[in-house]
Predict the structure of Bile acid:sodium symporter.
Amino acid sequence: MIQRLFSVFEPFILSLLATVALATILPARGAFATFAGYLADAGIVLLFFLHGAKLSREAIWTGLRNWPLHLAVLASTFLLFPLLGLGMIRLPGIDPSLAMGILFLTLLPSTVQSSIAFTAIARGNVAAAICSASFSNLLGILVTPALVALLMKVEGGAGVSLASIEGILLQLLAPFVAGHLLRPWIGGFVGRHKGVLTLVDRGSILLVVYTAFGAAVVEGLWTRVSPGDLGRLFLLCLLLLGLILAATYMIARLMRLSPEDAIVLQFCGSKKSLASGVPMAGVLFPAAQVGVILLPVMLFHQIQLIACAMLARHYGEQAEARGRGEEA
């Protein structure tokens, strides 16, 4: 059990923690902060360009056939999650800034890589997981900012300005569309050099986290967030994940999904994307707010990796046992 838990803490998670520590000790200031911000913006543009080039058009059309499952995943991601978030931020004793971060977390699209990986480990429908996770991320470019504008402004947040909408279009959507349109010419290169995409993916996230937390530290982040606040936030993230895992399990039973499709709903419908959340927060919110907004996103990301890795292994072992029973 200890070895399984330790294996989840891959180098990227350790890099995230180290980046937060670096931003706390040596935050970017002055001209260097401006340069780091421009560099992070360039990384985000390149990241979404490469993701657009990676998305297979054939996978989109194939995935449309299993529309009840995909609709269930999207409903969990963009309807059930936000409803839970709206209820959770009304609990007593939550710092208002962290409450906005929790709400923002619930508005994000699903992850792609970990959703597919955990579905494969659990012996689920990998093809459907690829389609559901891709649909969620594609729609999230538009749906998440719309939900932020609707819900976070109503709840007293900053809302979304015209400049933020322009930022989403120019930094996220336009590069994604351009990459997808150029897929016939560059898709093969991207497919053969997956390590480049991984490097850009993780490097751009670390850059945004460093600049965001650095700006928040300069504005007094750790004087506003106490250890008690962090403890309550950890418990709330655990509660949120437990509720959504239980809800997707029950929905799968009500829909009478096959075990393979039920696994897709549970893993794709319970995830929230750090890779999408970090650049979106950087575009949607003022620099001084981004660090606090991202705290729940980063914490939930690590909790979901640990919990879902253990759950995926459990489902995989069950599938192996069923297979041995059928052979016997």
Observations:
- Residues 1-9, 154-159 have pLDDT under 50 and may be disordered.
- The radius of gyration is 19 Å.
- The chain has one domain: 9-316.
